[in-house]
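This follows on from our talk about sequence and fold. Can you supply me with one protein entry, sequence and fold together? Could you add the entry underneath, on a fresh line?
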Amino acid sequence: MTEQAITAKLPSNGPTWSRYRYPESLYRFGTLLVVVLFLGYSLHFLNVDIAKLIGALGRLVGVVSDRYYPPDLEYVLDRGYLAAILDTLQMSFLGSFAGVCLAVPLAWFSAGNVTPHRVMFPVGRLGVISCRAIHETIWTILFVSVLGFGMLAGVSALTMFCIGFAGKLFADEIEAIDMGPVEAMQSAGANPLQVFLFAVVPQVRVAFTGIAIYTWDVAFRAATVVGFFGGGGMGWYLKRNVQQLENLRVAAIILSIIAMVLIAEFLSGYLRSAVNRAK
C-alpha cells in the first residue's frame, strides 16, 4: 500500500491541540472569578480605602524613625533582660519537649491505620483537635487565670500548643507508612504496643525527629507571645515597656526578638538538614 493510500485512510477529524481543556478550564476560571468577586465584596463591605492604606504605609516609615530610632541597645544587654531571654529559651524547650512526648501517643491513637482500638481513635482525634483549635494566647490566658503569672503558665500553654501542632503532623506520618511490617507482626500475634514500637516507629523515627525540631522552632516564636500575656520571659519585658511608652526600649526588644528568632531558625534548619542526611 502506497503512502498516499495510507494517508487517505487516516481520519480527517483527528484531535486538535488546545491550550485549555473544557470543562477543567471552566472550573478553574469560575473559581478564580468567585474568589476575585468575594475579595472585592469584602473590601467594599469593610470600607477599605486602598489609596489611604498605601498612604498610611508611607507615613509608617516616618513614625518609626521619629519614635523608635535609635533603639536603646544597652537595655537589652542588661543582666535582667538576658535572664529573660534564657527564661524564654527554657520555656520553649520545656513546652515543646512535653508537648511532643504527649503528642506521640495521641498521634498513635488518632492514626486510623494503626490505632490500638476503634474507641481510642475518636479519643486521640478529639485530643489533637482540641489542642489545635485553641490559640496559644487563649491557652496562656486560661493558665494564667488558674496558675497565676509566670513561666509555669507559659510552659503549660506551650505544651498544649505543641500537642496540637505536633500531634497532627505525627498522625499524618503514621498514616502514610508501609503497612506490610504492621500486617506481618499482627499475623504473628503481636499486641498493638509491640506493633507500634517495632513496625511503626522504625518507619517514622526520622520524620518524628524532624517534626520535633520544627515544633521547638515554632514554640520559641510563640513563647514571646505567650510571655506578653503573662507567661514571662522577653514577652513580659515587651508588654511592660509598651505600656510605659518606652518606645526606644520597645524597638530594642523587637530587634532582640528578631535576632533570637533568626538564630533559632538557623539552628533548627541545620538540625533538620542533619536529620535528613541521616536517612
In short: Residues 192-231 form the longest helix (40 residues). The radius of gyration is 27 Å. The domain at 73-277 is CATH 1.10.3720.10 (MetI-like fold). The chain has a mean pLDDT of 81.
